[in-house]
Design goal:
Structural class: alpha/beta
Strand content: 15-25%
Low-confidence stretches: none
CATH architecture: Alpha-Beta Barrel
Distance between the termini: 17 Å
Shape: globular
Number of helices: 10
Oligomer: single chain
CATH class: Alpha Beta
Bound molecules: zinc ion
Largest sheet: 5 strands, parallel
Radius of gyration: 18 Å
Mean pLDDT: 93
CATH superfamily: Glycoside hydrolase/deacetylase
Length: 266
């Protein structure tokens, strides 16, 4: 049995409920996991709704969005995870984007800051937050420590470097993740236990054939499958996602169970 998770990143102060309703209209009962930005600045090169915004905008001030998501939470039809603080980028001297959890890695108040954001989302949505999603899926050791110190688990993509605290568990996980990637050509699906917290990758590939192959691997090995998308990208590139929605239909017809990411960590 495959637990199927859709992780949709970047919900923020500027997000319109109509857009969420529109992009998921064909699977309106699917409990999508929204990774919410607590105080968005500019998701540079990403969510176009935030372009040129320089002031941190608290998501709770978008009353329409809060009401919409709270209603869905009450019906068990969505999930919320924490997605960064500002989701802002900095730039190195060559103009390359540095994601938030990389430039914040050595901030002395990182742990306190993530704790504050977690509490803010919990109070805003009246919902427990047990998962952190790093902007651009990039995080380092200190960031991971701040995540589990605040009682959260992690969802993101594996990096090539060993950027976790060293332990037997984390070493075994690293080997497992890379063997699957090298030999089968996809990121390790399913939940990994690091002792301090749990982690689950979400693939950002959305082609029908790729997802079908991954699904049958998960089905054979009794693993969960999480897919990472962005509502604004689906909204603006509908044609591109035909295969993704066809795959969701296929997976549901073949016994996949729609699941919230936070339930995978319970
Ligand atoms: Zn994001």
């Amino acid at each position: 049995m495959v637990k199927l998770i859709i992780r949709d990143d970047d919900c923020n102060f500027f997000t319109r409920p109509e857009d969420l309703e529109y992009v998921y209209r064909s699977i309106s009962d699917f409990p999508v996991t929204f990774a919410v930005v607590p105080e968005v600045t500019d998701v540079y090169g990403g969510c176009p709704d935030t372009i040129n915004n320089t002031t941190p905008r608290p998501v709770g001030e978008n009353k329409k969005l809060v009401t919409y998501l709270k209603q869905k939470l009450e019906e068990g039809k969505c999930d919320i995870t924490l997605h960064g603080v500002y989701h802002g980028y900095k730039f190195d001297k060559d103009g390359k984007k540095i994601p938030e959890m990389i430039w914040r890695n050595n901030e002395p108040d990182l742990c306190e800051n993530l704790g504050r954001c977690k509490k803010y989302l919990e109070e805003t949505f009246d919902y427990p937050i047990n998962c952190f999603v790093a902007p651009s899926n990039r995080i380092l050791k200190e960031g991971v420590r701040a995540v589990y110190s605040n009682g959260m688990n992690y969802s993101g993509i594996i990096a090539s470097s060993f950027n976790r605290e060293f332990s037997l568990k984390s070493f075994v996980n690293y080997i497992k993740r890379w063997s699957i990637r090298l030999f089968l050509g996809f990121p390790y699906p399913g939940v990994m236990n690091y002792g301090t917290h749990l982690e689950m990758n979400a693939t950002n590939r959305t082609s029908y054939d790729f997802l079908k192959k991954l699904f049958h691997y998960c089905d054979k090995h009794d693993m969960s499958l999480a897919i990472n998308v962005h509502y604004w990208h689906i909204r603006d590139n509908e044609e591109h996602y035909k295969g993704f929605f066809d795959f969701i239909d296929y997976a549901l017809a073949h016994g996949a169970v729609p699941t919230r990411m936070s339930d995978c960590f319970k």
